Amino acid sequence: MKRGLIVVDLQNEYLPTGKLPLTGIDTAVENAIRVISDARDAGLPVFHIRHESAEEAPIFAKGSVGANIQSDVAPRDNESVILKKHINAFRETDLKQQLEAADVQEIVVIGAMSHMCIDAVVRAAADMGYQVTVLHDACATLDLTFRGVSVPAAMAHAAIMAAFEFGYATVQSVDEYLLA
């Protein structure tokens, strides 16, 4: 079964210098670098997802530095960059067509944010029949609040990973994945 790597929204906006800094983003990017390097060495297709909002949006604004993919995980010339305008990377993009063209049946997902764009792409991919692996320590999120309840980023991340593991994906650490 052919595998492909999907790198979701590792953009400048999520760095400590961005408008939406994530908890654990530095570790997630360090691990993402290892996974991307491994995929390249193995000749696996790498698909970079880049979110872009309307020009007047407060984050990921078209043409802004924040909307750029982080230089440490920048795509190479032969790697796809899929521009998305919605949370789900499959919605109104050609991601599925690109996966099919590359004959990918198994996907590995890394990136940001665990509770939003990672969640959406993992569930959609599983629903489409892809075998999905999520590398939990190459993903990051932020603290959440719901109706006065504060949820630390680590808890939000763990809840999403637990849901994936329960019914949507294999969840591994980067070390487990690279050793397999």
From TrEMBL:
CDD domains: nicotinamidase_related
Gene this chain is encoded by: saxB_1
Signal peptide location: none
Entry keywords, A to Z: Hydrolase
Domain Isochorismatase-like: 5-146
Protein's name according to its UniProt entry: Isochorismatase
Organism: Pseudomonas atacamensis
